[in-house]
């Protein structure tokens, strides 16, 4: 496939042609996944990154402008998404280590255990006090680890609704748990 054919395909995609989108997806998906694995060292994550890229392309097809070749754009985008993923993973790992370290420090003191139990009870009560939909969104995000996009699909709501409800849930929980914030 040459650069000009890709450009024609992309122009059709901008007009909403699903067959052209599917053709572009099938043409590059495997190659992009292999490329992404070089960065992530993780097949499922690589596939998710490529799938997310294609989803974003479809969602923003009307606004998207590609000044280089479509192939270069796809590979550069996958590289950028992978680098963002790696950076995010590193931050998550650092945060997890910090939380584990702090949790170990907390377990050293018997008094802390009582505070922790009280805090967990208060957290659960505060979560239970949230409106049903907000509580469900919060639990899917924080307890099941779903991404906002996955929650939106699962509950058949917009990502913006998920973001708004999560923001309200966190704000409410902060207010109700303000006495415990120094313990965090």
Q: Could you characterize the architecture of this molecule?
A:
It is a single chain. The chain is built from eight helices and no strands. It has 184 residues and is an all-alpha fold. It folds into two domains: 3-87, RNA polymerase sigma factor, region 2, helix turn helix motif (Rna Polymerase Sigma Factor, Chain: A, Orthogonal Bundle), CATH 1.10.1740; 109-183, Arc Repressor Mutant, subunit A (Orthogonal Bundle), CATH 1.10.10.10. The longest helix has 38 residues, at 70-107. The chain starts with a helix and ends in an 8-residue tail after the last helix.
The biggest sheet, with number of strands, parallel, antiparallel or mixed sense and barrel status, is: none
CATH C-level class of the largest domain: Mainly Alpha
Strand content: under 5%
Note the run of SSEs as H and E.
HHHHHHHH
Number of discrete domains: 2
Instruction: Return the structural class.
Output: mainly alpha
Please state the overall shape, judged from the principal axes of the Cα atoms: elongated
Radius of gyration: 22 Å
Count the E strands.
0
What's the mean pLDDT score? 83
Keywords: Sigma factor, Transcription, Transcription regulation
Protein name: RNA polymerase sigma-70 factor
InterPro entries: RNA_pol_sigma-70-like, RNA_pol_sigma-70_dom, RNA_pol_sigma70_bacteroid, RNA_pol_sigma70_r2, RNA_pol_sigma70_r4_t2, RNA_pol_sigma_r2, RNA_pol_sigma_r3/r4-like, WH-like_DNA-bd_sf
Domain RNA polymerase sigma-70 region: 24-87
